[in-house]
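Milestone M4 deliverable, item 7.
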Amino acid sequence: MHSKPQLLAWLTCDGVHLDPATGKHTILGVFSNIRAHRFPVTHPFMIWFMTLTDCAAGPHKIRILLGVDPTQMQLLLERTFESPGPLQRINLINEIRNLSFPAAGDYSITIEVDDEPILATSLAVTS
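Output delivered:
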């Protein structure tokens, strides 16, 4: 039996700089909600940065879903990543472009690794 992947960090931010010399990540402009004066609104660019651990060695699939109603989520991002082994920490930089919000509200976000939900959270969009 193997353990389920664990999410150690989840940040919404404007950018991530990866230092080629050290491999360190610099997180830029962390935010937790979106403000708009008019709706619908489209947010041009953000990054959802996450750190995972307890992923068995080999390829894995991550899916990020978003919706106003947790029972009607739409697939926003799907990608694969490699894990060298369960003791490693894996940093994933997920670029989200032109994300539209039809109205103000709390938008549900679900993150799945290999079809297992590992996080259910929300993003507040306010006027």
